[in-house]
Amino acid sequence: MHISVEKASFLKALSHGQSVVEKKTTVPIISTVLLQAADGFLSITATDMDMALIERIPVEVKASGAACVSASLLHDIVKKLNDKTVIDLTISDDASRLFIVSGRSRFDMGCLPVEDFPQLVQSEITHKFTLPAPVFRHLIDATRFCMAVEETRYNLNGIHFHDHEEGGKQYLRAVATDMHRLACIECETSDDIKGMPHVIIARKTIQEIRKLLDDAEAPIEIGLSSTRVEFNVQGAGYSAMLTARLVDGTFPDYKSAIIVDNDKSLIVATKSFAETIDRIGTVVTNDKLRAIRLNACDNQAVVSAVSQEFGSATEEMDVDFAYSEPVDVCFNVRYLIEVAQQINAEEMELLLLDADSSILIKPVGNPHMVYILMPMQV
């Protein structure tokens, strides 16, 4: 193999690959990337045995071939090379060494046998559909911060995707929860998603596909089976295919949580409300509970926070809350800010009941984005 490649595209592909590979492993081949050059393209393959990423970038191929090298080391070398010089990659005749030349810099890396590189056992894809890249980015960004992180709740460590029909229209719905908060977002799609498997896409897979979406130009092709998901991404001068195992578990029945009896509507200006929460929450930034209190009555709301170590803060707001009976409820300040940051509408609605009940939050005029926050007992 002998190729010449521009640093920018090579480094971006390597950064994607080295975040996929298993870094802490006793099997060295799992920490490598497979480089394959042919027909004017370089394919870079990385896997951790649960996920595999194949990314193709255009290069000048002077001689085709393949090599397996350390993902992290190659990434670090390329990252530190001069931006203005072309990178030449050559493998030795016995395929045991990879030589990297860029300007006046020379590197000599050891290679592992290409035939030892693992191959994922792939199940047959049973369902395929496409989504515009901005739509898929929105579904991920608006829900991923609600994913759980506890290993014991493996079925919550991801985003649940399924089809949903309402009013004769088909929607793709994304749901995530850590049992303290819940995000439920949906977008209208074609009938292609009808009957798709209900799946949970794991946290790491979500993180990796989200990186690829930043440069996606064409609609994303998504393939599903009962055990595997496959994404095909096309960008300017490159293509990528990410395939991964799905979470083997059942997502909890969340639908009853988004149908609540909360009958007190509080409407606030989204931007000013987020700024108020952020300001008042400053005093509890370092507290373990990070609790903030919201008291609403007669079109007025008082946002307050108390820290035994740093003091207290209070701010009054004009709101749309036409109830003379006050509602007083406490929430985690970070959770409230993260929800407000996802709402692009000028106004957001908070449906309240009492201090012990969850709160439902949604943009005014958008029924396809719903958040649930559990209250805190302080």
Topology at a glance:
Elements (H helix, E strand, L loop, with lengths): L1 E4 L1 H14 L11 E7 L2 E7 L3 E8 L1 E4 L1 E6 H9 L7 E5 L5 E6 L2 E6 L16 E5 L1 H9 L16 E9 L2 E9 L3 E9 L9 E4 H11 L6 E5 L3 E8 L2 E8 L18 E6 H11 L10 E7 L2 E8 L3 E8 L8 E6 H10 L4 E6 L6 E5 L5 E5 L5
Antiparallel strand pairs: 1-5, 1-7, 2-3, 2-6, 3-4, 4-17, 7-8, 8-9, 10-15, 11-12, 11-14, 12-13, 13-25, 15-16, 16-17, 18-23, 19-20, 19-22, 20-21, 23-24, 24-25
Helix pairs in contact: 1-2, 5-6
Describe what is shown at a glance.
17% of the residues lie in helices and 43% in strands. It is an alpha+beta fold.
What this model shows, in words?
With 378 residues, the protein is α+β, with helices and mostly antiparallel strands. It folds into 3 domains: 2-116, Roll (DNA Polymerase III, Chain A, domain 2); 127-245, DNA Polymerase III, subunit A, domain 2 (DNA Polymerase III, Chain A, domain 2); 264-373, Roll (DNA Polymerase III, Chain A, domain 2), CATH 3.10.150.10. The chain is 17% helix and 43% strand. Helix 5 (270-280) runs antiparallel to helix 6. The termini are far apart. The model has no long low-confidence stretch (mean pLDDT 94).
